Amino acid sequence: MPGAQLWQASPLTYLALILGGVLSIFPIIWSFIIASRDNSAVYEMPPTPGDQLFTNVDRMLANEDAAFLYGLVNSAVVSTVVTISVIFFSSLAGFAFAKLKFRGSNALLLIIILTMMVPTQLGVIPLYLMMVELGWTGTLQAVIVPFLVQGFGVFMMRQYAMSAISDELIEAARLDGCSTWRIYWNVVLPALRPAAAVLGLLTFMQTWNEFLWPFIVLTPDTPTVQYSLKILSSGLYQTDYVALFAGTALATLPLLIVFIIFGRQIIGGIMEGAVKS
Amino acid sequence: MSSTVGAVPPTRAASPPPSAPLHRRRSYRLGRWDLKYSPYLYVTPFFVLFGVFGLFPVLYTVYVSLFDYELLSGTKEYAGLENYRLLMQDAQFWNAAYNTLGIFLLSTVPQLIVALMLANLLNRQMRARTLLRMGVVIPNITSVAAVGIIFALIFADRYGLINWLLGTVGFDPIAWRDNRFASWFAIAFMVDWRWTGYNALIYLGAMQAIPKDLYESASLDGASTWRQFWTITVPLIRPTILFTVIISTIGGFQIFTEPLMYGNGLVRGGVDHQFQTLAMYIYEKTFTGNSEYGYGAAMSWLLFMMIIIFALINFVLVRRSVKGDKK
C-alpha cells in the first residue's frame, strides 16, 4: 500500500510492536492452553499446554444444555444469510446513490449516514415485544431479519462505486440496451467485488460475535454459538473450566481461520474506516 | 422488460433495426420509466427494513416508557412520567450510571491514546508490516463472550494469572471483583484489549492520506518526530479522531457483555453491584423476573440522552484540545 512512510522503523519501534502483538495474541493462546489441560490443572502456573484437548472438546460437545454443535450450525446459518443480504442490499443502494440520478437522493443519503448513529441496542425492548407479537422468539429469523440491512454498508458501497466505476462504462451499457437492473447485475456487481468481500468479512465477524440480542430473543432450544458459551459459563460452579475453554477455543477458531486467510483484506477494510459496533 | 432488451441485437443504438418502430417505442418508454423510478426501488429495501427494525423500536421506546407493565395479568397501564420519577430515586440506577461512566472513562481514554501512538509506530517503513498489523487487530476478531470468559480467569481473585504474576514479584493479590475500582479496571482492560488495535488501524488509514512533503519541510525546519506527530499528524487526522471518540462513546455507554461474562454470566454485576452497568440493569429489570418493560424503556431513553450529551461533550473537548495545538 503506497502512503506516507517517512521514517525507517527503529529497533525500539519493532520491540514495541512485537510486544503489542504478543499482548494481543496471548489471551487467545492461553485459552487454547487451558482447553488442553486436565481439570485439576486449570490453575497451574506457568502456562504450559496439556494433552487433554480432544477429551475436553468431546465432553464439551456432550453437554446437552449448551448444544454447542447446534449453536455452531445456527451461527453459521445466521451469519451467512445476514452477510449475503447486507452485501446485496448495500451494493444495490450504494450503486443507486453513486451512479443514478434521482430526486431526493442527497437527502436520503444523509438519512442513511444518520442511521449509523442510532444505537439499535436502545430499541431492544420494543424490538423484543415485536418479536413476541410476530411469534418469532426462539426462532432464527428473530436474529436474522432485524440485521438484513446496514447503513454503513450502503455508505461504504457508495464510496467504492463512486471511484471504481466510471460513468462511461454505465453509459456504454445503456447504449447497448441494458436495463438498470442488468447494469447492476452484469456490470456494477462484478466491479464492486473487492469492497463486497471486505464488507462481507466484517459483517460475518460481527454477526458471528453478536451476543446481547440472541441472548434476549433466543431460547436454549435454538442457541447461537455465543449463546451456547453463555450456557456453558453459567454452569461455572460445577466447574468444568477446561470444557468451557474448549468451547471458547472452538467458537473463536472459525474466525481465526477466516482472519488468517483474509487478514490483508480485513485490515484494508478497517483502515478505510469501518464502523465498530 | 429484460426480454425486450434481450431481443435487441448488441449493436450500438445509433443503428437501430428499422423494421420494428413500435417495438422500439415501447422499449423507449420502459427505459424512461426505468431511469426515473428504478433507483427508488433499489434504495427502498434499506429504508423499509431499517424503519421497521431499527428506527421504529428506538422511537417506540418512548411510548413504552410511559406505561406500567404487569406481567401476571398481561396488562399495561398508562403511567405518564411515573417511571422516570421512580428512576430518579432508584439508588441502583445511579449506582449503575456511576459504574458505566467509570468503566467508560477507564476504557476509552487510554484506548484512544494508545491507539494513536500505535498507529504512529505502524506508520513507518518496516519489515513484516502486514504481520504486525494483523497482530494488533487479532483481539478484535474474537467474540466478546469468549473474551469475557478468558479475562474472568486472567483476573480471577484466587488463582488468576495476574495475581500469580503479582505474587511472583512479591505483591499482595488484588481483589479483582470485590473492589469496585479493581473490577472496573479489569473490565476496562478487556475493552482496551479488544479495541485498541482496531482504532489504531483506523488512525493509520487516516495518517497515510497525509501528504509526505509536510513532514519533509518540517524536518528541514528541524522539528523532531515527536513534534511532527503533535503538530502535523494529530491535527490533520482530527476528523478521524472525532469519529472514533463518538463511536467509542456510543459503544462504551452500552457496555454489557464484558461485565456480564466477568461476573460469571450474572446480571447483578458483583455481590454489591459494584460493576453492574446501565445496560445490565436494564436487562435485569426487563428480561429477568418481573418484566418491567416500561421501567426498562424509561431507562433506555435516559441512557440514550446520556450518550448524546457525552458524545457532544467529548466532541467539543476533543475539537478544542486538538485545535488548540499550535500549528
TrEMBL record, chain A:
<feature type="transmembrane region" description="Helical">
    <location>
        <begin position="107"/>
        <end position="129"/>
    </location>
</feature>
<feature type="transmembrane region" description="Helical">
    <location>
        <begin position="183"/>
        <end position="205"/>
    </location>
</feature>
<protein>
    <submittedName>
        <fullName>Carbohydrate ABC transporter permease</fullName>
    </submittedName>
</protein>
<keyword id="KW-1003">Cell membrane</keyword>
<feature type="transmembrane region" description="Helical">
    <location>
        <begin position="241"/>
        <end position="262"/>
    </location>
</feature>
<feature type="transmembrane region" description="Helical">
    <location>
        <begin position="67"/>
        <end position="95"/>
    </location>
</feature>
<dbReference type="Pfam" id="PF00528">
    <property type="entry name" value="BPD_transp_1"/>
</dbReference>
<feature type="domain" description="ABC transmembrane type-1">
    <location>
        <begin position="72"/>
        <end position="262"/>
    </location>
</feature>
<keyword id="KW-0472">Membrane</keyword>
<keyword id="KW-0813">Transport</keyword>
<feature type="transmembrane region" description="Helical">
    <location>
        <begin position="135"/>
        <end position="156"/>
    </location>
</feature>
<keyword id="KW-0812">Transmembrane</keyword>
<dbReference type="InterPro" id="IPR000515">
    <property type="entry name" value="MetI-like"/>
</dbReference>
<feature type="transmembrane region" description="Helical">
    <location>
        <begin position="12"/>
        <end position="35"/>
    </location>
</feature>
<keyword id="KW-1133">Transmembrane helix</keyword>
<comment type="similarity">
    <text>Belongs to the binding-protein-dependent transport system permease family.</text>
</comment>
<dbReference type="InterPro" id="IPR035906">
    <property type="entry name" value="MetI-like_sf"/>
</dbReference>
Automatic annotation (TrEMBL), chain B:
<feature type="transmembrane region" description="Helical">
    <location>
        <begin position="181"/>
        <end position="204"/>
    </location>
</feature>
<dbReference type="InterPro" id="IPR000515">
    <property type="entry name" value="MetI-like"/>
</dbReference>
<feature type="transmembrane region" description="Helical">
    <location>
        <begin position="293"/>
        <end position="317"/>
    </location>
</feature>
<feature type="region of interest" description="Disordered">
    <location>
        <begin position="1"/>
        <end position="24"/>
    </location>
</feature>
<feature type="transmembrane region" description="Helical">
    <location>
        <begin position="236"/>
        <end position="256"/>
    </location>
</feature>
<dbReference type="InterPro" id="IPR035906">
    <property type="entry name" value="MetI-like_sf"/>
</dbReference>
<comment type="similarity">
    <text>Belongs to the binding-protein-dependent transport system permease family.</text>
</comment>
<feature type="transmembrane region" description="Helical">
    <location>
        <begin position="40"/>
        <end position="63"/>
    </location>
</feature>
<protein>
    <submittedName>
        <fullName>Sugar ABC transporter permease</fullName>
    </submittedName>
</protein>
<keyword id="KW-1003">Cell membrane</keyword>
<feature type="domain" description="ABC transmembrane type-1">
    <location>
        <begin position="97"/>
        <end position="314"/>
    </location>
</feature>
<keyword id="KW-0813">Transport</keyword>
<dbReference type="InterPro" id="IPR051393">
    <property type="entry name" value="ABC_transporter_permease"/>
</dbReference>
<feature type="transmembrane region" description="Helical">
    <location>
        <begin position="131"/>
        <end position="156"/>
    </location>
</feature>
<keyword id="KW-0812">Transmembrane</keyword>
<dbReference type="Pfam" id="PF00528">
    <property type="entry name" value="BPD_transp_1"/>
</dbReference>
<keyword id="KW-1133">Transmembrane helix</keyword>
<feature type="transmembrane region" description="Helical">
    <location>
        <begin position="96"/>
        <end position="119"/>
    </location>
</feature>
<keyword id="KW-0472">Membrane</keyword>
